[in-house]
Write a structure and sequence with these properties.
single chain, 112 residues, Alpha-Beta Plaits, 4 helices, 11% strand
Length: 112
């Protein structure tokens, strides 16, 4: 099992999760975070830290596309280990449906 970041992180990008990760397996895109599934140790400490409830265990059904997306972008985006302010629109974007199709950016973030 591993954890994956899902749709609700897009255009929110809270980073509370990266601060508690003991193995630094988060990677940063312009408006989204991902978890590297081969680095995640399945400890689960990140899941309750996410204010947007965007982190899920990959054992939940329907998360195959998110596992692939997390795996793909974790190899090209920079590592992030320090908490930063969320995106300015985070509160208003929390819970918006269909963010992957409408807002997802493949551009990397700045990392640490």
């Amino acid at each position: 099992m591993t954890y994956v970041v899902t749709d609700n992180c897009i255009k929110c990008k809270y980073t509370d999760c990266v601060e508690v990760c003991p193995v630094d397996c988060f990677y940063e895109g312009e408006n989204f975070l991902v978890i590297h599934p081969d680095e995640c140790i399945d400890c689960g400490v990140c899941e309750p830290e996410c204010p947007a409830e965007a982190i899920k265990p990959d054992t939940e059904s329907g998360l195959d596309k998110w596992l692939k997306l997390n795996a793909d972008f974790a190899t090209v985006w920079p590592n992030i280990t320090q908490k930063r302010d969320p995106l300015p629109e985070a509160k208003e974007m929390d819970g918006v449906e269909g963010k992957l199709e409408k807002y997802f950016s493949e551009k990397p973030g700045s990392g640490d």
